[in-house]
Design brief:
The structure holds two protein chains of two kinds. Chain A contains 15 helices and no strands. By secondary structure, chain A is an all-alpha fold. The longest helix of chain A has about 40 residues. In chain A, about 40% of the residues are buried. In chain B, a hairpin with a 5-residue loop joins strand 4 and strand 5. In chain B, helix 9 runs antiparallel to helix 11, helix 13 packs antiparallel against helix 14 and helix 14 packs antiparallel against helix 15. In chain B, the strands form five sheets. Chain B has a six-stranded mixed beta sheet with strand order 13-17-12-16-14-15, with helices on both faces. The chains are: A mainly alpha, B alpha+beta.
Chain lengths: ~350, ~525
């Protein structure tokens, strides 16, 4: 019951946060000097046509009225129509979510699959060149701008070595050779579920470079977090006891230390998803990945208010939701959090 | 030694096998194209943007305008012949027999009348039909356009925007649901149907089996897959890696390297893309014609073209692009003469310059971004400081149209005609007097110019030679009065793999690539 109250309170607070975000972004987009009606029609529209659209969409009404209209639509789940594509923003976002989600999940898998082992290995190699190498790698991962890394990977693995394709989710001709049957929208999963290995292979080679680029920062972060947590755990008495009993170092690291050290890392990973969403902005542009990131960048360039608002709210909602899940999980296992 | 769990070993093996097969799936049945062209609408009446690449393969107009230098000015499309009355106020088009729309409907006069009426009523480019007072079905296969003044209806009917002929059934559906086409529906008579569309990702076109032009000739592509790629460098990588057969927008900086690559035949073309700088003529110091002329003489045009467009282009001769009516060699040009510029400044009371101008350009335009600093440096040489302000085009546009007294001093603009008549478009839209600024962002007013252009527009349909002469007079006034700076008519280049033939650029359709003539070379 107490947990339910906690979650309800957090949920109400989250809705307030989202309303605040919507208000601020609405205000910001209207401060920018541009005419939404002219944007809707394009630069060659005649003044009379612009006036018509202003009237039709209510752009000629006072700002506060427009705000009210927008918030009422929002309550109904209506994010308005994109000025650039004329289609509902919800539809635009919906058609791109799977691509971005697949990319983020792949990057997350890399972050976990590479970051945690690297963090563990570095603690067992303390003082060696191997440890220095891991530390340098993690610092580089954290500090290297992803847009630069993306271009570098393209130069080496596409242009020079020709190992990977440069753009898109699948090859342009794939649909005529091994068309993908959509089940979830995640190409890798769908191709496996339907046993379409040709398409799976194609989707896999297409996602490698974008996922590595997007995962560079989380890999570095997870490596450093895991290493720090492992060092702390390894100094605990029970680890010394385990070693004294002759438990192998591999078992000490993997079974006793890592299990206790991995908690904080996983919490950070949840929050890293928000970073990844913004990371997709440039990764998707660099690799022509047809997801939310490239759509957002295009919306900004077009000053497409409804799309910008919709994407900002979507990102904020995702962030709030992840926070809520993290907080609820903590509250579930630690009653002190509920009181706090 | 312990072994990794079996699922880990399996996953690793699967990954390795997958990565070993890096050769991507390719198809010989599809032409694979990379294009920057996003789709803003699938509605053939509203289409007024980059989706023209696809529209021109799905739909057809009554006529196609031929490229400059062709023996005939037009190629019949859905009209096989046409004539105009002596006074130029009635144009009659005879339609092609046996033409089917993609949904199985048959082309007739009613379909043409309804299409044009819808474009005129709601079209993004509806203004092109401004001279038309009525469209009448004379009989099943004949359509007559009645005009208020003798406009060049052949050019208008061949427009890339607002002139597509649409299936009557689709028009019915669109009447009931205004967003009918936006689901990705194509309802034209063109060689390709719209098979699939993934927003911002790809457009798939498939051969229309009943296309009136037929598919008997060998080598046609049955499918065209266009990957939407906004970055030119990425397009180049895709082309070089063999991921696409055609890349429609390559970076100018790669021109030399790809030209030297024997795998490609490079075509260099003249485009209707005209780069202009509007000078704010309503406030000092640019309200003085001598200051405007001084700036025109201070510009190193060759450097502008070399730096901004990698040498692909020619100096503009007024706001009408080369290759498009009514461009003329008789229109004067300024040349780089800094001494004369200084002299004119001195005559205007600004010896040594000593003032600052605010220049805005569209940050997303690479050519403007390239040459804006060259312009600033050149003006600094004669003592004029330039504050360069890159803005998104939409913002630049909104500021320029708000209040001329507070607006920029120099507005860089890329402009091209909606259809192949830069007299009624470029000259009228950009420099004709208007109370509310539309595209006249010099805010320039000249009644003699207005009169010449107005008369020329009304004569173009019946007496093009006289109209051309009037336009030349108008452009001469415009250039001498230096209301704008005419930097360059941009060129473009295409790298066509040697295994393809049939690619042809048509200056009248700069945003369209016609896939039907492209074939595998023998």
């Amino acid at each position: 019951m107490e947990l339910l109250k906690f979650v309800s309170r957090r949920l109400a607070f989250s809705l307030l946060v989202l309303a605040g975000v919507a208000t601020i972004v609405f205000a910001l987009t209207r401060i920018i000097p541009s005419d939404p009606a002219a944007l809707y029609l394009g630069p060659r529209a005649r003044p009379a046509e612009i006036a018509d659209i202003q009237k039709r969409f209510g752009f000629d009404r006072p700002l506060i009225e427009q705000y009210g209209q927008y918030m009422r639509g929002l309550a109904r789940g209506d994010l308005g129509n994109s000025l650039a594509t004329k289609r509902p923003v919800t539809q635009e976002l919906g058609s791109r979510i799977a691509a971005t989600l697949e990319l983020m999940l792949a990057a997350m898998l890399l972050a976990v699959g590479i970051g945690i082992p690297l963090g563990v290995v570095s603690t067992s190699l303390r003082g060696s060149i191997g440890e220095a190498l891991v530390r340098v790698t993690s610092v580089v991962g954290v500090s290297m701008p992803a847009f630069w890394l993306g271009l570098l990977l393209q130069l080496v693995f596409v242009h020079l070595l020709g190992w990977f394709p440069s753009a898109g989710r699948v090859d342009a001709g794939l649909r005529f050779v091994a068309p993908i049957t959509t089940v979830t929208g995640l190409n890798l999963l769908d191709t496996l579920l339907t046993g379409n290995l040709t398409a799976f292979r194609d989707a896999l080679v297409h996602i490698v470079l974008p996922a590595v680029t997007l995962a560079a920062y989380p890999i570095g972060l997870v490596t450093r977090m895991t290493r720090a947590a492992m060092l702390e755990v390894l100094s605990q008495d029970y680890i010394r006891t385990a070693r004294a009993y002759g438990v192998s170092e591999r078992r000490v690291l993997g079974r006793f230390a890592l299990r206790n050290a991995v908690g904080p890392t996983l919490t950070v990973l949840g929050l890293t998803m928000a970073f990844m969403l913004t990371g997709t902005f440039y990764v998707e542009v660099i690799y022509a990945w047809p997801g939310l990131g490239s759509f957002t960048v295009r919306s900004f360039l077009n000053v497409d208010y409804p799309a910008i608002l919709g994407m900002t709210l979507f990102g904020a909602a995702g962030y709030v939701l992840i926070n809520l899940v993290v907080d609820a999980s903590q509250a579930l296992f630690d009653p002190r959090v509920r009181v706090a | 030694m312990t072994r990794a769990p079996s699922f880990v070993r399996f996953a690793t093996l699967a990954l390795m096998l997958a990565l070993l097969g890096v050769v991507s799936a390719q198809s010989t049945t599809a032409l694979r194209v990379a294009s920057t062209a996003a789709v803003t609408t699938w509605d053939p009446s509203l289409s007024f943007s980059t989706e023209a690449v696809y529209m021109a393969n799905i739909y057809e107009p009554l006529l196609w305008a031929n490229a400059t230098g062709s023996a005939e000015k037009f190629t019949p499309a859905l009209a096989t012949s046409w004539e105009t009355s002596d006074d130029g106020l009635a144009w009659t088009f005879h339609l092609r027999e046996g033409v089917k729309f993609h949904d199985g409907e048959t082309l007739d006069a009613d379909a043409v009348v309804r299409s044009i009426d819808r474009h005129r009523a709601i079209g993004g480019a509806a203004f092109i039909w401004a001279p038309v007072t009525d469209v009448v079905a004379v009989d099943d296969m004949t359509v007559r356009f009645d005009l208020a003044y003798p406009a060049p209806l052949d050019l208008i009917a061949a427009s890339l925007y607002g002139a597509w002929i649409v299936s009557p059934a689709a028009l019915d559906a669109a009447e009931a649901d205004e967003s009918y086409f936006e689901a990705g529906i194509g309802a034209g008579t063109g060689p390709y149907t719209l098979a699939d569309y993934q927003p911002d990702a790809e457009v798939v076109l498939s051969a229309f089996p009943d296309y009136w032009g037929g598919w008997d000739e060998p080598g046609h592509f049955q499918n065209v897959v266009v990957s939407i790629v906004s970055d030119q460098v990425l397009q180049e990588q895709m082309l070089l890696a063999g991921e696409v057969d055609l890349a429609l927008s390559l970076p100018p900086t790669s021109y030399a390297s790809i030209s030297a690559d024997p795998r490609y035949a490079v075509q260099t073309v003249v485009t209707p893309f005209n780069y202009v700088g509007f000078l704010n003529t309503v406030r000092p110091p640019l309200d003085d014609v001598r200051v405007r002329q001084a700036i025109s003489y201070a510009i190193p045009y060759d450097d502008i073209i070399a730096v901004g467009a990698e040498g692909l282009g020619t100096q503009g001769r007024g706001p009408v692009p080369q290759g498009i009516y009514p461009w003329s060699e008789e229109v004067p040009q300024y040349h780089y003469d800094p001494d004369k510029a200084r002299q004119l400044l001195a005559e205007a009371g600004h010896e040594g310059g000593g003032f600052t101008l605010r220049l805005t350009y569209a940050a997303e335009n690479a050519i403007e971004r390239g040459f804006a600093p060259v312009l600033a440096d050149a003006l600094a040489d004669i003592g004029i400081q330039v504050e360069i302000e890159p803005l998104l085009f939409n913002q630049q546009w909104a500021i320029a149209k708000a209040d001329p007294a507070e607006a920029q001093d120099i507005f860089l603009l890329l402009y091209w005609p909606t259809y192949s008549d830069a007299g009624s478009d470029n000259l009228w839209s950009m420099f004709h007097s208007s109370d509310v600024p539309f595209f006249n962002l010099s805010y320039w007013r000249n009644s003699v110019f207005d009169d010449l252009v107005d008369r020329a527009i009304e004569l173009t349909g019946t007496d093009r030679a006289t109209a051309q002469a009037l336009y030349v007079d108008a452009m001469t006034i415009l250039v001498n009065d230096a209301a704008g700076l005419y930097f360059l008519d941009a060129g473009a280049w295409y790298a066509i793999p040697t295994y393809l033939s049939g690619f042809e650029y048509n200056i009248n359709y700069p945003f369209a690539t016609f896939f039907y003539p492209i074939r595998l070379a023998d």
